[in-house]
Amino acid sequence: MLKITDNKNLKIDNQLFVKPDYLIDPFISGNKYRKLKYNILEAKKQDSKTLLTFGGAFSNHIAAVAAAGSRFGFQTIGVIRGEELLNKIQGNATLEFAQNHGMQFHFVSREMYREKQTDVFIEDLKKQFGDFYLISEGGTNNLAIKGCEEILTEQDSEFDFITCPVGTGGTISGLINSSGNHQKILGFPALKGDFLRKDISKFAKRDNWDLITDFHFGGYAKINSELISFINDFKRQFNIPLDPIYTGKMAFGVFDLIKNGYFPKDAKILMIHTGGLQGINGMNRILEKKNMIKIQ
Ligand SMILES: *Cc1c(COP(=O)(O)O)cnc(C)c1O
Question: Where do the Tryptophan synthase beta chain-like PALP domain residues begin and end (predicted)?
Fold first, then answer.
C-alpha cells in the first residue's frame, strides 16, 4: 500500500495541535485512505476486478475510490445520486476527477438512490456491470474502521481531547477504539440528525466520546460567509488548508469551544485533519455563482 509520510502533528499553540492526515496522499486523502486500505486488500484477496460504490456529486469518497482503483488496478463504478448530473460531468470538479481516473458512472434518481442497500438494487447492478466488490456509501464497514484505528499513534496518548468531523461515523469509531481511557473523543457532525449516535454506538467499543452538534451550518455541504472567512483566516495564520464540508466546520467548532471555556485550562487538544481538500474546487464554483468570497 501507500507509504504514509511522517505526518508529525502541527502545533497551533500550546493547547491545540493538528494531525495532518490530509498529507497521506494527494489523491486518496485522509480518512478516505484509512477507510479504503483494508477494503482494497480484501478486494485483492477476493480477486475482484471491480470496485463499486455510491456517492453524491461532491463526494470525497467517490474521488478517493476512483484514484485508488486506477492506482491499484481495479475498474471502478460510481453510483451517483441525481440523474440530472448525467449531462453535467464537465463543470463538476469531483466527477471530472473521478472520470479522469477511469471511473464509470451510473446516475440514479434520488428515489432510486434511497433503495441502494436493497438486494433488488444490488442484483440489478450485478446484471448490468457483472461482479464487483461493494463499498458502501462513505465507505464505512468493519474493515474501514480497522483502518481508522491506525490514525492515532502511541505519541498521541499525550492528548486529552481528540476531535474529528463526522459524516457516517466510521472515522470517529476508529478513533474511539484506539484511544485511551484518559482521552475524550469529540465528533463534529457535518450534517443534521441524531441518528449518528446510534450508528457510532454500533462500532465503538468505548463510551469516552461525545458529539458536538452545533456546527453543521444548516446541514451537509451548507456554508455561510463566516465559515469561509474562518477557513481563509486559518490558512493565512497557520498555513493549513481546511475544506468547507468537514474539517472547516470542525475547526470552527473547536475554536468556538475554546473561546467559550469548554475545555479545562491545561487540556491538550488534537484535531484530526481528515482531508477533503478536493472538495474546495467544487465549492468555489458554487461560491462564485452566489457572488461570495471564495476559499483561497
Ligand atoms: C468522509 C469524510 C469525513 C466523514 O467520515 P465518516 O467516517 O463518514 O464519519 C470526514 N472528513 C472528511 C474530510 C471526509 O472526506
Answer: 10-275
152 CB-side CA count, 13 A: 28
**CB of 248 closer than 6 A to ligand 1?**
no
Q: Which contiguous run of DSSP H or E holds residue 19?
A: strand 16-19
Burial class (CB in 10 A: 0-12, 13-18, 19+), 286: middle
CATH number of 49-131: 3.40.50.1100
Q: How far is the CA of 127 from the centre of ligand 1 (A)?
A: 31
Ligand 1 contact, 94 CB (< 6 A): no
Reduced to 3 states (helix: H, G, I; strand: E, B; else coil), residue 50 is strand
pTM here is 0.95
Residue 241 pLDDT greater than 80, yes or no? yes
- Please give the mean pLDDT across all residues of the chain: 94
Q: Are the beta carbons of 192 and 216 closer than 8 angstroms? A: yes
For CA atoms 287, 291, 292, 295, the dihedral sign is positive
The finding on whether 189 has its CB within 6 A of some atom of ligand 1 is: no
Q: Which of 21, 23, 105 has its CA nearest to residue 63?
A: 105
Q: How far does residue 275's CA lie from ligand 1's centre (Å)?
A: 8
**pLDDT tens, 75-111?**
999 999 999 988 999 989 999 999 999 999 999 999 9
Cβ atoms 62, 53 nearer than 8 A:
yes
Nearest to 178 by CA among 206, 144, 140, 138: 206
59, 173, 178, 179: which one is catalytic? 59
Structural class in CATH, domain 10-26+147-290: alpha beta
* pLDDT on residue 3: 56
